[in-house]
Protein backbone atom coordinates (compact mmCIF):
# COMPACT_ATOMS: atom_id res chain seq x y z
CA UNK A 1 0.00 0.00 0.00
CA UNK A 2 1.33 3.41 -0.92
CA UNK A 3 1.78 5.74 2.09
CA UNK A 4 -0.29 8.90 2.29
CA UNK A 5 1.55 11.88 0.75
CA UNK A 6 1.89 13.56 4.14
CA UNK A 7 3.82 10.56 5.42
CA UNK A 8 6.03 9.82 2.44
CA UNK A 9 8.99 11.83 3.66
CA UNK A 10 9.72 9.00 6.08
CA UNK A 11 8.91 6.04 3.85
CA UNK A 12 10.95 4.24 1.23
CA UNK A 13 9.96 5.56 -2.20
CA UNK A 14 7.38 3.35 -3.87
CA UNK A 15 8.93 2.27 -7.19
CA UNK A 16 5.42 2.38 -8.67
CA UNK A 17 5.40 6.17 -8.23
CA UNK A 18 6.72 7.48 -11.52
CA UNK A 19 9.28 10.24 -11.30
CA UNK A 20 7.97 13.69 -12.18
CA UNK A 21 10.91 16.01 -11.55
CA UNK A 22 10.20 19.70 -11.37
CA UNK A 23 11.77 22.93 -10.21
CA UNK A 24 10.08 25.10 -7.59
CA UNK A 25 10.91 28.32 -5.79
CA UNK A 26 10.67 28.53 -2.00
CA UNK A 27 11.45 31.12 0.63
CA UNK A 28 13.48 29.73 3.54
CA UNK A 29 14.05 32.15 6.42
CA UNK A 30 14.16 35.17 4.16
CA UNK A 31 16.20 33.54 1.40
CA UNK A 32 14.60 32.58 -1.91
CA UNK A 33 15.91 29.36 -3.40
CA UNK A 34 15.17 27.35 -6.53
CA UNK A 35 15.24 23.61 -5.89
CA UNK A 36 14.36 20.31 -7.48
CA UNK A 37 11.50 18.12 -6.26
CA UNK A 38 9.84 14.96 -7.51
CA UNK A 39 6.80 12.75 -7.13
CA UNK A 40 6.97 10.28 -4.27
CA UNK A 41 8.44 12.72 -1.74
CA UNK A 42 6.78 14.96 0.82
CA UNK A 43 5.14 18.14 -0.49
CA UNK A 44 6.74 18.19 -3.95
CA UNK A 45 4.81 21.19 -5.22
CA UNK A 46 5.59 23.80 -2.56
CA UNK A 47 7.00 24.39 0.88
CA UNK A 48 4.76 22.56 3.38
CA UNK A 49 2.76 24.78 5.77
CA UNK A 50 4.16 23.06 8.85
CA UNK A 51 7.74 23.41 7.66
CA UNK A 52 7.07 27.08 6.90
CA UNK A 53 5.68 27.55 10.42
CA UNK A 54 8.77 25.97 11.94
CA UNK A 55 11.08 28.18 9.89
CA UNK A 56 9.18 31.30 10.98
CA UNK A 57 9.62 30.48 14.66
CA UNK A 58 13.01 28.86 15.20
CA UNK A 59 16.03 30.93 16.24
CA UNK A 60 19.30 30.59 14.40
CA UNK A 61 20.78 27.13 14.95
CA UNK A 62 23.38 26.87 17.71
CA UNK A 63 26.57 24.83 17.66
CA UNK A 64 28.28 23.26 14.65
CA UNK A 65 26.49 19.92 14.17
CA UNK A 66 22.88 19.98 12.93
CA UNK A 67 20.27 17.31 12.13
CA UNK A 68 17.13 17.29 9.97
CA UNK A 69 14.89 14.29 10.74
CA UNK A 70 12.81 13.35 7.67
CA UNK A 71 14.40 15.72 5.19
CA UNK A 72 12.06 15.41 2.18
CA UNK A 73 13.50 17.49 -0.65
CA UNK A 74 15.58 19.39 1.89
CA UNK A 75 14.03 22.70 3.03
CA UNK A 76 15.12 22.39 6.66
CA UNK A 77 18.51 21.01 5.69
CA UNK A 78 19.06 23.91 3.31
CA UNK A 79 17.95 26.48 5.87
CA UNK A 80 20.28 25.00 8.50
CA UNK A 81 23.21 25.00 6.09
CA UNK A 82 22.51 28.55 4.93
CA UNK A 83 22.35 29.76 8.54
CA UNK A 84 25.89 28.47 9.13
CA UNK A 85 27.76 27.37 5.98
CA UNK A 86 30.66 26.11 8.11
CA UNK A 87 28.48 23.73 10.14
CA UNK A 88 27.99 20.02 9.51
CA UNK A 89 24.37 19.26 8.56
CA UNK A 90 23.07 15.69 8.61
CA UNK A 91 19.88 14.97 6.65
CA UNK A 92 18.11 11.70 7.45
CA UNK A 93 15.26 9.98 5.62
CA UNK A 94 14.26 6.43 4.70
CA UNK A 95 13.09 7.71 1.32
CA UNK A 96 16.09 7.41 -0.98
CA UNK A 97 14.52 9.72 -3.55
CA UNK A 98 14.32 12.37 -0.83
CA UNK A 99 17.97 11.90 0.08
CA UNK A 100 19.03 12.27 -3.56
CA UNK A 101 17.01 15.46 -3.95
CA UNK A 102 18.33 16.95 -0.72
CA UNK A 103 21.92 16.21 -1.72
CA UNK A 104 21.43 17.65 -5.21
CA UNK A 105 19.67 20.76 -3.91
CA UNK A 106 22.38 21.43 -1.34
CA UNK A 107 25.09 20.95 -3.95
CA UNK A 108 23.30 23.23 -6.38
CA UNK A 109 23.20 25.96 -3.75
CA UNK A 110 26.88 25.56 -2.91
CA UNK A 111 26.21 24.14 0.57
CA UNK A 112 29.17 21.84 1.11
CA UNK A 113 28.52 20.90 4.75
CA UNK A 114 25.48 18.70 4.02
CA UNK A 115 25.54 14.92 4.28
CA UNK A 116 22.54 12.67 3.60
CA UNK A 117 21.99 9.28 5.23
CA UNK A 118 19.56 6.46 5.61
CA UNK A 119 18.89 6.20 9.37
CA UNK A 120 20.95 3.04 9.81
CA UNK A 121 23.97 4.64 8.13
CA UNK A 122 24.38 7.65 10.43
CA UNK A 123 27.67 7.19 12.35
CA UNK A 124 26.84 6.05 15.87
CA UNK A 125 29.19 8.55 17.50
CA UNK A 126 27.51 11.62 15.98
CA UNK A 127 25.60 13.95 18.29
CA UNK A 128 23.80 17.13 17.32
CA UNK A 129 23.71 20.64 18.76
CA UNK A 130 20.55 21.64 16.89
CA UNK A 131 17.79 19.42 15.50
CA UNK A 132 14.98 20.69 13.28
CA UNK A 133 12.15 18.40 12.20
CA UNK A 134 8.68 18.35 10.73
CA UNK A 135 8.15 14.77 11.93
CA UNK A 136 5.95 12.35 9.97
CA UNK A 137 2.86 12.35 12.20
CA UNK A 138 0.82 10.23 9.81
CA UNK A 139 3.08 7.21 10.14
CA UNK A 140 1.13 6.47 13.34
CA UNK A 141 1.84 7.12 16.97
CA UNK A 142 4.01 4.07 17.63
CA UNK A 143 6.21 4.63 14.59
CA UNK A 144 6.51 8.34 15.37
CA UNK A 145 7.50 7.62 18.96
CA UNK A 146 10.12 5.17 17.71
CA UNK A 147 11.59 7.77 15.35
CA UNK A 148 11.81 10.45 18.04
CA UNK A 149 13.14 7.99 20.61
CA UNK A 150 15.89 7.10 18.16
CA UNK A 151 17.05 10.65 17.39
CA UNK A 152 16.27 13.02 20.28
CA UNK A 153 18.67 11.23 22.68
CA UNK A 154 21.45 12.14 20.24
CA UNK A 155 20.97 15.80 21.13
CA UNK A 156 24.25 17.05 22.58
CA UNK A 157 24.34 18.58 26.08
CA UNK A 158 23.24 22.19 25.78
CA UNK A 159 21.49 21.49 22.47
CA UNK A 160 17.91 22.09 21.38
CA UNK A 161 15.55 20.22 19.09
CA UNK A 162 12.71 22.09 17.40
CA UNK A 163 9.67 20.13 16.18
CA UNK A 164 6.52 21.30 14.40
CA UNK A 165 3.29 19.35 14.86
CA UNK A 166 -0.21 20.29 13.77
CA UNK A 167 -2.41 20.84 16.82
CA UNK A 168 -5.31 18.77 15.49
CA UNK A 169 -2.95 15.89 14.69
CA UNK A 170 -1.81 15.53 18.28
CA UNK A 171 0.70 18.29 18.94
CA UNK A 172 -0.25 18.67 22.59
CA UNK A 173 -0.38 14.91 23.15
CA UNK A 174 3.08 14.52 21.64
CA UNK A 175 4.43 17.26 23.87
CA UNK A 176 3.14 15.43 26.96
CA UNK A 177 4.60 12.13 25.74
CA UNK A 178 8.00 13.71 25.21
CA UNK A 179 7.95 15.26 28.65
CA UNK A 180 7.03 11.92 30.26
CA UNK A 181 9.42 9.78 28.19
CA UNK A 182 12.70 11.62 27.77
CA UNK A 183 15.36 11.45 30.51
CA UNK A 184 15.50 14.01 33.31
CA UNK A 185 18.13 16.14 31.59
CA UNK A 186 15.68 16.91 28.75
CA UNK A 187 13.16 19.72 29.08
CA UNK A 188 10.13 20.03 26.79
CA UNK A 189 8.11 23.20 26.21
CA UNK A 190 5.74 24.72 23.70
CA UNK A 191 7.74 27.50 22.09
CA UNK A 192 5.03 28.91 19.82
CA UNK A 193 1.67 28.36 18.16
CA UNK A 194 1.46 29.36 14.51
CA UNK A 195 -1.69 28.95 12.40
CA UNK A 196 -2.73 25.69 14.03
CA UNK A 197 0.79 24.31 14.40
CA UNK A 198 2.63 23.74 17.68
CA UNK A 199 6.33 24.49 17.78
CA UNK A 200 7.87 22.24 20.43
CA UNK A 201 11.34 22.85 21.87
CA UNK A 202 13.28 20.01 23.49
CA UNK A 203 16.32 21.26 25.39
CA UNK A 204 19.06 19.18 26.99
CA UNK A 205 20.99 20.34 30.05
TrEMBL record:
<dbReference type="Pfam" id="PF05175">
    <property type="entry name" value="MTS"/>
</dbReference>
<protein>
    <submittedName>
        <fullName>Methyltransferase</fullName>
    </submittedName>
</protein>
<keyword id="KW-0808">Transferase</keyword>
<dbReference type="GO" id="GO:0008168">
    <property type="term" value="F:methyltransferase activity"/>
</dbReference>
<feature type="domain" description="Methyltransferase small">
    <location>
        <begin position="34"/>
        <end position="200"/>
    </location>
</feature>
<keyword id="KW-0489">Methyltransferase</keyword>
<dbReference type="InterPro" id="IPR029063">
    <property type="entry name" value="SAM-dependent_MTases_sf"/>
</dbReference>
<dbReference type="GO" id="GO:0032259">
    <property type="term" value="P:methylation"/>
</dbReference>
<dbReference type="InterPro" id="IPR046977">
    <property type="entry name" value="RsmC/RlmG"/>
</dbReference>
<dbReference type="InterPro" id="IPR007848">
    <property type="entry name" value="Small_mtfrase_dom"/>
</dbReference>
Amino acid sequence: MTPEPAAQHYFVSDPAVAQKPRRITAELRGRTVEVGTDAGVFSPGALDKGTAALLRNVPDPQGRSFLDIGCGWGPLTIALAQADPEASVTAVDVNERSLALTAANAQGLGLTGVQTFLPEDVPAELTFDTIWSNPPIRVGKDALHQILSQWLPRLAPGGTAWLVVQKNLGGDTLQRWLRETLPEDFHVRRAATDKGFRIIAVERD
